[in-house]
Amino acid sequence: MVGAFQGAGVVVTGAGGGIGAALARRFAAEGARVVVNDLDAERAKHVAEEVGGVAVPGDASAIVADARDALDGTVDMYCANAGVAFDGVDAGQALDEKAWATSWDVNVMAHVRAAHELLPAWLERGSGRFVSTVSAAGLLTMIGAAPYAVTKHGALAFAEWLSLTYRHRGVKVHAICPQGVRTDMLAATGSAGDLVLQPTAIEPEAVADALVKGIEEDRFLILPHPEVAAYYQARAGDPDRWLTGMNRIQQQWEENL
Fold this sequence. Notes:
It is an enzyme of class 1 (oxidoreductase). By secondary structure, the chain is α/β, with parallel strands linked by helices. It contains 10 helices and 7 strands. The chain starts with 8 loop residues before the first strand and ends with a helix.
């Protein structure tokens, strides 16, 4: 895999900071030509200038055509990294229609729309790579964040579907599922994040390292926190026991609100 990213056209959405910026930096360092996308045009421009890439600001759902033009017509890898999170202590307080609609649009449908635009060219040439930043919440769940947990499950399901449908036609798919990562999004999770995510939080650069290693090993599921694999197995093996354990964490959180 030495030089595997040299000259590759890479798009990273939500790359104005956090995991996205770390991915942009890492792929640029590996020799890729990087498009930096973010809703915040100034942040996108800043990171693009830092990595020698091109800023394509705007809604991640609608930038594939502009990103392709910026890469001289070819997107080799698309990192669907942009995401949103909203808090909600219980089902009643989490029933915010706008929060659900925004979460579904950004965390799931942006991936669907991007894949729809990218797949024809990838299938025609027999190669392409789609990276979905899912979060361990997509494998497990997250207290106090119903729209986030549910839509991240949707993002993982879509990535799985892409992989099983197109892998024999040259399309590679990777799902990154970290737990806590020291970003603005983690800081915004409040007391729930402090309880569940902060103790084992890692830097965004560790996520980028894990992704590159996962690509080198041709793995679909990439776990920057390796312990998540055991949690995922426990959840599948005995759902009631796992839910009881998660409910204890929920109760612990409620006691400290």
